[in-house]
TrEMBL record:
It comes from Desulfomicrobium orale DSM 12838. GO terms for cellular component: cytoplasm; ribonucleoprotein complex; ribosome. The keyword Transmembrane does not apply. It comes from the Bacteria. This protein binds to 23S rRNA in the presence of protein L20. Pfam families: Ribosomal_L21p (PF00829). GO terms for biological process: translation. NCBIfam families: L21. This is Large ribosomal subunit protein bL21. Belongs to the bacterial ribosomal protein bL21 family. HAMAP family: Ribosomal_bL21.
Length: 103
């Protein structure tokens, strides 16, 4: 069984037992959370599509860890104008492990 969930303004395809990196969430490591914005739930040929969300569906997850991703470099340049800007940042993330999917 799989589901497509929305969290942090992005959509993710999740399956039971898989891990995923999402935008930083306010939850302690080791705690359980429920994702309730489910856009689609499917198992083989049986697929439920929400309008916009599937009613009664939820995904149970366990917070594994918090961390920071690798550095992203933003480089802007305008040729022949002596304009160059270099900026970088590291994005915070939360690592979730999907424990169960209810449809």
């Amino acid at each position: 069984m799989f589901a497509i969930v929305e969290t942090g303004g992005k959509q993710f395809r999740v399956e039971e037992g898989r891990s995923l990196k999402v935008a930083r969430m306010d939850a302690q490591a080791g705690s359980a959370i429920t994702l309730d914005k489910i856009l689609l739930v499917g198992a083989g040929a049986d697929v439920k599509v929400g309008q916009p969300f599937v009613s009664g569906a939820s995904v149970q997850c366990e917070v594994v860890d918090h961390g920071r991703d690798k550095k992203i470099i933003i480089f802007k340049k305008k040729r022949r104008k002596d304009y160059r800007r270099k900026q970088g940042h590291r994005q915070d993330f939360t690592l979730l492990k999907v424990t169960s999917i209810q449809a």
